[in-house]
Amino acid sequence: MTTNYSAGPQALGYYYQIRYGLLHLLQGKEEFKIAIEKTDDVETIDTDGLREMLQLKHHTGKNASLTDSSKDLWKTLRAWSDNLYTGKFSLSDTSLLLVTNAKAAPNSILSLLCPNDKRNSQEAKKRINDFLNRTKNQEIKDLAKVYTDCLTEKQREELVSSICVLDLSYNITEIPNAVKKMFITAHKKHHDAIYEGIAGWWEERVIQHLVNHSTNFITRLEVQTKLSDINEQLKMDGLPSRFKDEPVPTTFDINPDERQFVRQLRVIGINEKRITHAIRDYYRAFQDRSFWVRTNLIFDRDLETYNQRLIEKWDEYVAIKQDSFERLSGKTIDDAGNDECKVLGEDIYEHVRALKIAVRQENPYEHITRGSYHILADDNPPKVWWHPQFQKMV
């Protein structure tokens, strides 16, 4: 449903900050570090203490044009005037960047602050004053109040001269390709996978950053290190895991969980903590397998072949255990009691948990094998099971 109160543009604005922040950091100096929503939308600082304050203005409409009456101009001027007045930055070591995917209208105030041969900050300051003197728009006058009433003439002059307008910048959908172009040391066939890996990590890193109130900057070195790690995993046709070094939630509310692979564990008497571990492995394997297919690192048929290898290993061990049981007990597996089946089932389950079967030889991630078995156990009908009589129970 669309309403006058739609949060869509605002949500896009937040995602734009996250995506543009990554691009800007990668485009910056080696020693760059960045903060999101600290003093400004995006803020960077280098080892010399030079800062950049970025106001980001994203527009979804085609051919958006920013005129002298555009709120983007006056909201930005208010934010920077307020921060200057309250001492949150000093203009002697700070550059102010207004980044927008819209176009600064020809001969507008913003056009005079673009980095080209027509830039004229003195004329821009004069045009700001002229516009405020003649406008009848009270909202704009209110937005400019700190600029006009609280800053000195010298501060206003220095403020305007510090502003650089970067119009026609990337829109939110163009940023991924711009980031991928920076993967110059990686094979092009890996670019999609690298981007998905770094974008997912970056989003989580920014969330952590915001939860900590943006007090600690994120360094370019940290991002480059993560990129190198992802690239290294992809070498020699390897497969990266999003969970190689990162934790995923380790506590789950398993009581209402009626997925088949969970029910399979319950019927052989696996306790809740071990079921939690199984859900974690299922989650990790599902995410990694989906990521590999989505980024064309492997294909569906590769996973089908891998699944068949897992099933064959399971089937071999099931045959061994059932044969041993029938010889020692003198009973068929169909005549086994529930307690006997639970013992057999747990033995089979623990055996496959210990297997390390790689999708490719370079990637023997344990969670892939364990989680993939749970994926097979969750099929309808199940392709593997632990309790020898489970199929009669479903």
Descriptive terms for the model:
394 residues, alpha/beta, 2 domains, 15 helices
Describe it for me?
The protein folds into 2 domains: 8-181, no CATH class; 260-393, no CATH class. 52% of the residues lie in helices and 8% in strands. It contains 15 helices and 8 strands. The chain has helices at 8-27, 71-85, 121-134, 138-143, 145-149, 153-162, 175-180, 191-211, 220-234, 260-267, 272-294, 300-329, 338-353, 366-377, 390-393, and strands at residues 33-36, 42-45, 51-57, 65-66, 94-100, 103-104, 163-166, 218-219. A hairpin with a 5-residue loop joins strand 1 and strand 2 (42-45). The longest helix is centred in the last third of the chain and has 30 residues, at 300-329. It is elongated, with a radius of gyration of 29 Å.
Topology:
Elements: H1 8-27, E1 33-36, E2 42-45, E3 51-57, E4 65-66, H2 71-85, E5 94-100, E6 103-104, H3 121-134, H4 138-143, H5 145-149, H6 153-162, E7 163-166, H7 175-180, H8 191-211, E8 218-219, H9 220-234, H10 260-267, H11 272-294, H12 300-329, H13 338-353, H14 366-377, H15 390-393
Parallel strand pairs: 3-5, 4-6, 5-7
Antiparallel strand pairs: 1-2, 1-8, 2-3
Helix pairs in contact: 3-6, 8-9, 10-14, 11-14, 12-13
